[in-house]
């Protein structure tokens, strides 16, 4: 199995290295042959080649069974032209690989629930999956950068969806719900937006015709943002568009107590891509204190969804739990009575647990 590694910028390098150590441990335990191809993406790629998404990176990703990504971006590239920003590479590779389905699970782990900004009785029991449309909507509609129009500085971005785009992401959400608690909450802004009214119509129709065994409700996005903090345990699968999913997944992640623990999968019809949901944290890059568990758990999702190996995925998830149970924490989660470890020590610990 061939895996393209895209460490990217900032802490990306350290957290991907820790995840690779864990993947190697799993490969040893289950007797799998993993082959890695490391490529550039983001600011480091821009510095080295003049573009944040080199052709070689896309070619390697397309030829692999899966991609593991760290993070991209940093203040160093804040002033490069919009088309060459590190974030543009992320959008570019999502589009190039056709990764229209972004899965962002959020579960309140008992080890960090006390760190949730919500009262523990509200946060406890939250276990949801955001299914975010990832290759359409306002991220990919026509962009007009600020320019003078009739003497007034004007800019615009277009939110556009087609029926097939809505159907394929809705199908993923309904199918995911069938394997979970059987409930989909579709989130839109149908009281204002035409694209949302079409979204709601299509999702409603699909539930009636194909997924009547799944419960469906609809929330406007503003209400959903409120419901997430009022009662996160009411959700099972949240189905939403690209921009609402971006915003709601940050909100949901913090409820879990730490953004450093949350993984994600981006899937299409070919190679899938896996990455932690946090960013490149340039302020702590190179210090060896970043939490690699979000990336390690993303590697677990990779085994589950792209490498079709549930046992390997489970082994990683169990090992992470065990290491948490034994009281090891990176500095972001450290507290009295717990054992503080570095990024790479955390990688060693999880790997060792797998090989136990
Ligand atoms: C995310 C990030 C990206 C997004 C940025 C970095 C382009 O916020 O994956 O949620 O908005 O999709
Ligand atoms: Mg985001």
TrEMBL record:
UniProt-listed GO biological process terms: L-leucine biosynthetic process
One Pfam family recorded for the sequence: Iso_dh
InterPro entries cross-referenced by the UniProt entry: IsoCit/isopropylmalate_DH_CS, IsoPropMal-DH-like_dom, Isopropylmalate_DH
Residue span(s) of domain Isopropylmalate dehydrogenase-like: 2-350
PROSITE patterns registered for this protein in UniProt: IDH_IMDH
GO terms for MF: 3-isopropylmalate dehydrogenase activity; magnesium ion binding; NAD binding
Entries under Gene3D superfamilies matching the protein: Isopropylmalate Dehydrogenase
Cellular component aspect of the GO annotation: cytosol
Keywords for this protein: Amino-acid biosynthesis, Branched-chain amino acid biosynthesis, Leucine biosynthesis, Magnesium, Manganese, Metal-binding, NAD, Oxidoreductase
Named cofactor requirement(s): Mg(2+); Mn(2+)
SMART domains per record: Iso_dh
EC number: 1.1.1.85
Oligomeric and partner information: Homodimer.
NCBIfam families associated with the record: leuB
Annotated protein name in UniProt: 3-isopropylmalate dehydrogenase
Source organism of this protein record: bioreactor metagenome
Encoding gene per record: leuB_9
């Amino acid at each position: 199995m061939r895996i393209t590694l895209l460490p990217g910028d900032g802490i990306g390098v350290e957290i991907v290295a820790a995840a690779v150590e864990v993947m190697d441990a799993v490969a040893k335990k289950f007797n799998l042959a993993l082959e890695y191809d490391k490529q550039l993406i983001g600011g480091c790629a821009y510095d080295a080649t003049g573009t944040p998404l080199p052709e070689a990176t896309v070619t390697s990703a397309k030829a692999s069974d899966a991609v593991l990504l760290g993070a991209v971006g940093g203040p160093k590239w804040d002033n490069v032209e919009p088309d060459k920003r590190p974030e543009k590479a992320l959008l570019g590779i999502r589009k190039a690989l056709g990764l229209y389905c972004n899965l962002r699970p959020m579960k309140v782990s008992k080890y960090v629930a006390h760190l949730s900004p919500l009262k523990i009785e509200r946060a406890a029991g939250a276990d949801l999956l955001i299914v975010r449309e990832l290759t359409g909507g306002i991220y990919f509609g026509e962009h007009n950068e600020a320019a003078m129009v009739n003497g007034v500085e004007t800019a615009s971005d277009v939110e556009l969806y087609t029926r097939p785009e809505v159907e394929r992401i809705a199908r993923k959400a309904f199918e995911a719900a069938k394997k979970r608690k059987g409930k989909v909450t579709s989130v839109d802004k149908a009281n204002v937006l035409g694209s949302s009214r079409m979204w709601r119509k299509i999702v409603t129709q699909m539930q009636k015709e194909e997924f009547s065994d799944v419960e469906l409700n609809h929330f406007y996005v503003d209400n959903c943002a409120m419901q997430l903090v009022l009662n996160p345990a009411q959700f099972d699968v949240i189905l939403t568009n690209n921009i609402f999913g971006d915003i709601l997944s940050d909100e949901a992640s913090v409820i879990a107590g730490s953004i450093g623990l949350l993984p994600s999968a981006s899937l299409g019809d070919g190679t899938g891509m896996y990455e932690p949901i946090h960013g490149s944290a340039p302020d702590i890059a190179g210090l060896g204190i970043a939490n690699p568990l979000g990336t390690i758990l993303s590697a677990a999702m990779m085994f589950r969804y792209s490498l079709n190996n549930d046992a390997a995925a489970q082994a990683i998830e169990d090992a992470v739990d065990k290491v948490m149970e034994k009281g090891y924490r990176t500095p972001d989660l450290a507290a009295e009575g717990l054992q503080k470890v570095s990024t790479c020590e955390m990688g060693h610990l999880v790997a060792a647990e797998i090989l136990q």
